[in-house]
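stuck on this chain:
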Amino acid sequence: MKKIRHETLNEIMLALMAGAGISEEDRKIVAESLLQADLRGVHSHGILRLPLYLKRICSGAVKLRPQRKILRETLATALIDGDHGLGQLSGHQAMHLAMEKAAQCGIGAVAVQKGHHFGAAAYYAMMAGQRDMIGIALTNTPPLMAAWGGRVPMVGNNPFAVYVPAGEERPILLDMALSQVAQGKISLAAAKGERIPLDWATDLQGNPTSDPLTALQGILLPAGGYKGYGLAVVIDLLTGMLSGARSGPKVRSMSGYPNEPQDSGQLYIAIQIEAFRSLEDFKSEVDAYIREMKSSTQAEGAPSIYLPGEQSFLRYENNLREGIELPEGVIQDLLAVADMLKVDLSPWLQD
């Protein structure tokens, strides 16, 4: 493990993306998304993802200069053609547009087709906090889980995030995939050379496995059994089907189809609280709700009582002070893609 300051990590990402020809404006958006995930301790969706993004740009699977456009629009909704660019770029545009519409109509919903992996869903939900709105972001993914009762990957683990602002307390932030863990956590375990719990994934024959490499070729297990599977199906319909993107087994894996676009779908929703009630009263009551939860009787052996997102905010504050730990496997991937792009990382990754 190597601990790196967040400013240094940001400079590494900007340098690599500049080497790939990504514009200054676009690389700032992508770097911000990935860095926020690493700071929150969600390393499965941080800089770990960048080498594969850049390889897909070089292969032509991801467009370097996507021509995004609005295909359909009403006062409260829109559909954006992401043109197979990086998902952070279409997601950033879509959430800003959703907030503009929510400011006018009370709610805004923007879907994206021809999308791509967009990092952590929390990044987009949290954007709504800039305007004291509730933010929701959903995406589908390549098939990682079997249909309930099956043993062939058919549906993604389809993550979603919900952000709810508070007053004096930390906001509520739910950010989760619908498998037991995100696939990125298994990739992170592989990069660290670690085993994984047996309830995370199975091999292609349906046998539980502790080998992350076998798991990455196998099937992820749904969170909450059939309930997680059911939610994954619904999110697939709300993102892929509603937007006109691919859905189910048709969504392309980034690593399994290195030369093909993913064509995933996303849905971004912003809700203006003042369309329903006083913002001040709402935030005050969210504060009271949080305090009531945290004052409830603590379970024996539990370190504390937490609200959704609270631990990630604590990790953010700590990593901002102490730096971010990168596994050796991730560093080697960064060096390999730097070599491919003829980018010198020695100013930042010297021993």
